[in-house]
């Protein structure tokens, strides 16, 4: 039974889902990093929000971890690169809290415009300071969005309803989408110069860190009000403090901070600053949404291999997962076959080609190529799987080409793999018998028909009498039982391939004896 740890405060709805799906779930919010490191080793899945920091050190000791599910959007608290390198899938729930967070940003804008928090404190203190709290209207003001993705778009829609003009800076926003949203797409400097209110809705990345830097703040319109419900680190807090003190920035509403939990921050001392403790996603509705989603996604992955909303690998829908499974297995085996031959020849892989025919032509190919790479790179990469293999391949400059043949295939399905090294190209093809049993059907263009055995011997030889008897005699002398023996040849007396499935590994001396047989060109031991 897979085990999942919930290490942040999640709606109990998540626990129910895990239990219903037959997953053993442990809830331990608020652990210190050391406490978390001490127990993480026993878990297959980890469900988090923003408080848990998934660092490289934590991943180093997470021996069994296969999936991290973020009940929310931002994954900047996860070292995704290290997770990927260790083959751990990282998922988020990209829509579940978007409306709630957009509403918080709109609420923060009103709070700033009318100084609602300060006015409330003053009124409750019995001061009735009617003249102190003079506000500004939102109507006809220009709202500058930095980031117009899910949350930014909802904020834009709400702001247009409030009769604001909305301008947006987002390099990935298309003109068509901007028009559909009713916003004007502009460059950052133009936005800074024109906006009465600025609201941030980008992830925290190396590109967005400090996007509202000291220089950027200096370019804003005097009297601008800034809302940040995205991430601390997008705004330079020291520069913002000075701009607020000088009055250049009239107010700031901050839900997120450079250091969280933010219990001590100089911005707290300023009257024109409104703060909330990272409450953007904190509504019953949003928390229920993200908890349910993350529990479903983690369960699906652990139980069926379905991949939804992963930030570091291709998606496989719950419907597709069982259908793709035998094809992924076939691809991994074909990759393993080609990879072991390449490794035996110490070749450096430059290019990988995959051709799909028949039923395989109509599938989602990204998981299939990921499975192929996982098999192919297993001899050279420890802990390889479908998550880290494609990244390793890309980082090592291995080119991938995929061809889909829309023609009748001799087989119900056919996947042909070619692996090119500096000195040669190896091809191997496979099919699924009965829709689920992987079979090799072609090696080096020579037809064969062989199962993938646990231990195998692959021999290329000249098709001349005597080879089978001699090869079998060597195996018999070693007391090794032959499970299956498959032969194929290009033409009578031409090049031949031989695939022998054996019950146990062959000692090195026997392998050398086979290599020394007169007809043999190459003999390699394989394991699957
Ligand atoms: N305060 C809170 O509790 C919450 C905060 N968030 C934060 O809000 C962020 C945005 O969430 P979504 O809108 O759902 O994400 P999203 O991925 O739908 O949108 C992000 C947008 O930022 C844009 N972007 C990326 N790089 C940019 C750059 N250099 N300059 C300008 N725009 C850039 C992208 O093109 C995209 O359109 C999350 O990454 C998360 O950090 C999300 C939920 C709750
Ligand atoms: O979803 C996000 O990105 C958030 O920032 C929400 O954070 P939280 O889950 O409330 O700690």
Automatic annotation (TrEMBL):
SUPFAM superfamilies for this protein: ACT-like, Formate/glycerate dehydrogenase catalytic domain-like, NAD(P)-binding Rossmann-fold domains, Serine metabolism enzymes domain
One Pfam short name: 2-Hacid_dh_C
Residues passing through the membrane, by range: none
Listed GO MF terms: phosphoglycerate dehydrogenase activity
EC number: 1.1.1.95
Top-level taxon: Bacteria
InterPro entries: ACT-like_dom_sf, ACT_dom, ASB_dom_sf, D-isomer_2_OHA_DH_cat_dom, D-isomer_DH_CS, D-isomer_DH_NAD-bd, NAD(P)-bd_dom_sf, PGDH
Keywords annotated in UniProt: Amino-acid biosynthesis, NAD, Oxidoreductase, Serine biosynthesis
Catalytic activity: (2R)-3-phosphoglycerate + NAD(+) = 3-phosphooxypyruvate + NADH + H(+); (R)-2-hydroxyglutarate + NAD(+) = 2-oxoglutarate + NADH + H(+)
Domain ACT: 456-528
Keyword NAD appears in the UniProt entry: yes
Pathway: Amino-acid biosynthesis; L-serine biosynthesis; L-serine from 3-phospho-D-glycerate: step 1/3
Described function: Catalyzes the reversible oxidation of 3-phospho-D-glycerate to 3-phosphonooxypyruvate, the first step of the phosphorylated L-serine biosynthesis pathway. Also catalyzes the reversible oxidation of 2-hydroxyglutarate to 2-oxoglutarate.
Family (UniProt): Belongs to the D-isomer specific 2-hydroxyacid dehydrogenase family.
Protein name from the UniProt record: D-3-phosphoglycerate dehydrogenase
Species: Acidiphilium iwatense
